[in-house]
């Protein structure tokens, strides 16, 4: 039974920020994604991730990027404060992964967070916050760049903490986020440590097409059956690896779509790929693929989803056709070379 209605009252600020935080940070993997985005936006050329207990204990990202000036550290933890956009026009041309100024504030509201940062030519500084309480900035020795450590996610919201899974499951999600970042940013060297062990390591990919990194992340089992895609169709560049029809599987385990260096879910592209495989794939089999799309920023809106995992194309049917065409061509060429083999 619902309670009889009570008078309308404004929510306390603490509750407002906890509710908002819950929409930005759902689990260690979503915190990791935000921290990786920030590291990439800072211009990092190398970054290191350290997780404890699948991220339930801590999530740490260290980068060698531009750093945060000591006097701006409190602002970094403030809601809706960002250095990335200043007006609506910049929003529409956002080249950064972040722009909402919400991630670090959310983490400060629902966990313990420490930021240590140093700009080139300046002294290092540290700020710490826990469950919304921000402590004063202190000087500290630091490398150039930024190291953010998140501890005990949702320690102050036990009902939310209970919904987190086992360290193994949370680790698997974090590792997925790490791999997606590695695919989308081949020019950055990345390392992933878990409970003191080095789990994954990718050196910078010097190849201009970024397909060496793709093959390294997806692994030998995938790459051995993969066909390279590389096409320029109007303003759209499509690169990547797709599986031979004979290597399709019942599960959609390798389906990566990266648009302008963002890993996204996108029906237009996914459908374009499926359409290209329509004649060569039987029944419920799923194509496996990783496609990197690049197009001018005015042709794609990235500001449609709070978690930035969806984009909207200005002309989605053109994108659909281009993807379909690029994939069809590669499949047709491969089919011509192996015309006697049929998918079983
Ligand atoms: P947003 O990324 O949307 O701006 P965040 O809450 O993630 O919001 O970060 C707030 C601000 O803190 C950023 O705009 C940026 O100026 C600064 N910042 C956060 N992480 C880093 C980092 N790793 N390196 C440099 N600056 C950072
Ligand atoms: Mg951010």
UniProtKB/TrEMBL annotation:
Family, similarity comment: Belongs to the DNA mismatch repair MutL/HexB family.
GO biological process, any: mismatch repair
DNA mismatch repair protein S5 domain sequence ranges: 214-332
Keyword set, alphabetical order: DNA damage, DNA repair
Role summary: This protein is involved in the repair of mismatches in DNA. It is required for dam-dependent methyl-directed DNA mismatch repair. May act as a 'molecular matchmaker', a protein that promotes the formation of a stable complex between two or more DNA-binding proteins in an ATP-dependent manner without itself being part of a final effector complex.
UniProt GO cellular component terms: mismatch repair complex
Whole-protein residues included: 1 to 344 of 613
Protein name per Swiss-Prot or TrEMBL: DNA mismatch repair protein MutL
Keyword DNA damage: yes
Top-rank taxon: Bacteria
One example GO MF annotation: ATP-dependent DNA damage sensor activity
Organism: Thiomonas arsenitoxydans (strain DSM 22701 / CIP 110005 / 3As)
